[in-house]
Amino acid sequence: MSNNSLAQIGAITAMNLRNMSQRAASSIVALVGIAGVVTVLIGVLSIAEGFRAVLEISGSPQVAIVLRSGATDEMGSGLSQDQIRTISDSKHVLRDQQGAVVSPELYVVVDVPLISTGTAANVPLRGVGPQAAKLRGGFRIVEGANFTPGKFEVVVGKGASLQFAGLKVGSQLRWGTTNWTVTGIFEDRGSVAESEIWTDASVLQNAYNRGTSYQSMRVKLTSPGAMQAFKDELTSDPRLNVRVFSEKQYYEEQSRILVTLVSTIGKAIAVLMGLGAIFAALNTMYSAVSARTREIATLRALGFGSAPVITSVLTEALLIGLIGGAVGALVSYFAFNGLRTSTMNFATFSQLTFAFTVTPALLVQGLIYALILGFVGGLLPSLRAAKLPITTGLREL
For 73, which DSSP code? Predict the structure, then answer.
């Protein structure tokens, strides 16, 4: 491109931008429309990002989850007492002064009303072994005390205590035919465990007539590198009929369905809303071209080419898109980031609490989408301006 063409582009674009104040009303309409689309897009996608983040936090490459062969989640699994002992005896299992760092676990779903609506929701009640806390990265009691083994006592994850009613220290709850007492609240770095209620596994077995069976077993290995050897050992043992996952792999598979669903819905909504924003941008830019008919014709008569005219109109449209995108990104960040909610975990059909997570990547994605909307909204008006016959424009004088 010649220096003359660049000079023409600069001159017309600068003139066009200086005159934007004369089209403030229509420009603001287009800007608000784009900002709304970006806000919704980032808001919906931050749900998927928050769900994925809480499951990623939960997964450790050094912790294995053992399920019955053929099971994809704990609800469809089952392990006997003999299988638990065999797994615990593996040479790849980490040991400390209390023995093998393992936790045979039982998982049931109980009804607890949501604080926000009062409607019943499925909340996981997990029976755990004595070593369970050592298998979670940051487990700690933040209020009250841990449950006493052998008693009908529970501790509640912080996320669950914030989303569901009646889960406060000292509360009495009735599930099945048993009364339970909440003795404490725990944290675990915001992991999936914070969506659960914990109790002693043997107590839960008795309360729900599960005998001596379990549904899963968590195992801390001697090192992350021992995962494959541990898996090979268990899956080749004729006494066992099990599947072995790394905790990270297990949670990645659980998150896939919801993340895909939410992302697809979010993008579909953004496309539909984007059509409305594009029409607003088209209207704005057609109005701008109409108001500048005489100006454009005069410039063309003076020797200015089509490219500078197209560039000037597109620049204005892209600027509207950029500002709208920036506004939408800021609104979505302050409105959604860190907002706690709960949703159905389709793998277990129970509620999982998490926080909306607005990442830098989502903000960039929103800005790019806003620029695309601005570009599409300005393209046809810019072409119309470039093709406008000089004689037609000069008649407007």
Answer: S
Among candidates 110, 107, 27, which has minimal Cα distance to 291?
27
Mean pLDDT within 336-357: 70
- The two beta strands, 242-246 and 95-96, are unpaired
292-334 per-position pLDDT tens digit: 666 666 666 656 666 766 777 777 778 888 888 899 999 999 9
Distances (CA, A) of 249 to 57, 64, 68, 102, 164: 12, 9, 16, 18, 29
CA distances from residue 67 to 3, 70, 143 in whole angstroms, order as listed: 70, 8, 32
Contact 181, 153 (CB under 8 A): yes
Q: Alpha-carbon distance 228 to 287, whole Å? A: 66
Least confident of 19-28, 126-135, 321-330: 19-28
CA distance readout (Å), 82 to 55, 70, 77, 212: 30, 19, 15, 10
Which residue did the predictor score with more confidence, 28 or 39? Answer: 39
Judged by phi (left if over 0) then psi (alpha if -120 to 50, else beta), residue 94 lies in beta
Output the pTM of the full model: 0.74
Q: How far apart are CA 394 and CA 385, in angstroms?
A: 13
**317-338: b (≥16 Cβ within 10 Å) or e:** bbbbbbbbbbbbbebbbeebbe
- Nearest-angstrom CA–CA distance, 245 and 231: 8
Amino acid (1-letter code) at residue 167: L
Cα dist. 58→118, 190, 250, 269, 390 in Å?
Answer: 28, 8, 10, 30, 66
Residues in CB range of 191: below 8 A, 6 or more apart: 54, 57, 58, 136, 137, 138
* Whether 354 contacts 338, CB under 8 Å: no
Task: Give how far Cα 146 sits from Cα of 127, 153, 169, Å.
Answer: 13, 9, 11
Structure tokens at 82: 């003999």
Q: Which amino acid is at 152?
A: F
Distance CA 147, CA 182 (A): 8
φ/ψ (deg, to 5) at 172: -105, 130
